[in-house]
UniProtKB/TrEMBL annotation:
It comes from Streptomyces graminearus. It holds the Pfam family HTH_7. SUPFAM superfamilies: Homeodomain-like (SSF46689), Resolvase-like (SSF53041). InterPro entries: Homeodomain-like_sf (IPR009057), Phage_Znf_bind_put (IPR056911), Resolv_N (IPR006119), Resolvase-like_N_sf (IPR036162), Resolvase_HTH_dom (IPR006120), SSR_resolvase (IPR050639). Gene3D superfamilies: Homeodomain-like (1.10.10.60), Resolvase, N-terminal catalytic domain (3.40.50.1390). This is Resolvase/invertase-type recombinase catalytic domain-containing protein. Residues 57-78 are annotated as: Disordered. The keyword DNA-binding applies. Keywords: DNA recombination, DNA-binding. Belongs to the site-specific recombinase resolvase family. Residues 85-229 form the Resolvase/invertase-type recombinase catalytic domain.
Length: 278
């Protein structure tokens, strides 16, 4: 009965594109030790292992010990690209919002790995999105013929406005990463090159139009409320009675600190209302 070839043996048929470990040798860390796991870009070269998240280095290769080069072996011929690898990304704006519905949808789309975060659209840096893009690049660099798809439930999870969406489009195009939308009017998978580039432009315009529409409706609502005497915002903490009492006490020489404490307001608020300098 022929010996079963282990995932580690399949991985070591290839040179590592990250640490330059030659075929027949384990991967190594930056400190020159044997890595505990093979680098993603290396085992992605094996079609059967493309969907794996990690491939451990065998104990007999002595992970954590000083790295030594193994015996050279013949490199395996290039395998045909397997099915597309989907990397999911989920985001919601606040701690109070739930991510589970997005995570369920991404699991249903058979995403190999899902990156998620709770972060406002006002925050430009999105660490988990950057991690997803970095992994997609790593896979593409290791296996240029392998299709990699960034999957999201809806377009608004990716960017705040047209400028950000176009910037992301340029990134995906440069790295050869496809985009998949699971809901909305443009549901489907789009390649940022060729005809897909037009769709990215449409996505950007529609995102900006939607944002402007929301802004316009908000301003109209505020204007309508103002005409009815409702100006919104926080109610003032200093009414006419408090202000009159404060002025009388201040004219009698009482300190601003004492007046503010008695009226239950801050010194800064009192200074602002009686026109004094700090």
């Amino acid at each position: 009965m022929p010996k079963k070839i282990t995932p580690a043996e399949q991985v070591e048929r290839h040179d590592c594109p990250k640490c330059q470990a030659p075929a027949g040798s384990p991967c190594r860390t930056g400190a020159g030790k044997v890595a505990a796991s093979y680098h993603t870009g290396r085992f992605a070269l094996v079609p059967a292992l493309k969907a794996e998240l990690t491939v451990k280095t065998p104990a007999d290769r002595q992970p954590g010990k000083a790295w030594t080069q193994g015996a050279p072996v013949a490199q395996a011929p290039e395998g045909k690209p397997g099915a597309a690898i989907r990397l999911g990304y989920a985001r919601c704006s606040t701690v109070g919002q739930e991510l589970q519905s997005q995570l369920d949808a991404l699991a249903g789309a058979q995403c190999t790995r899902v990156f998620s975060e709770k972060i406002s659209t006002r925050v430009k840096e999105r660490p988990e999105l950057e991690k997803a893009l970095a992994l997609a690049r790593e896979i593409r660099q290791a296996a240029p013929g392998q299709a990699v798809i960034l999957t999201v439930v809806e377009m608004k999870r990716l960017a705040r406005n047209a400028a950000e969406l176009m910037s992301l489009s340029a990134t995906l195009q440069a790295d050869g990463i496809q985009l998949e939308l699971l809901s909305g009017p443009l549901t489907g998978v789009y390649d940022p090159n060729g005809a897909g580039a037009i769709v990215f432009a449409v996505l950007a315009v529609s995102a900006e139009v939607e944002r402007e529409g929301i802004r316009e409706k908000t301003l109209e609502g505020l204007d309508a409320a103002a005409r009815k005497g409702n100006h919104g915002g926080r109610p003032t903490v200093v009414d006419d009675d408090k202000l009159a009492a404060a002025r009388v006490r201040h004219a009698k020489g009482e300190s601003v600190t004492a007046i503010a404490k008695a009226l239950g307001i801050s010194r800064a608020t009192l200074y602002r209302h009686i026109g004094e300098s700090a």
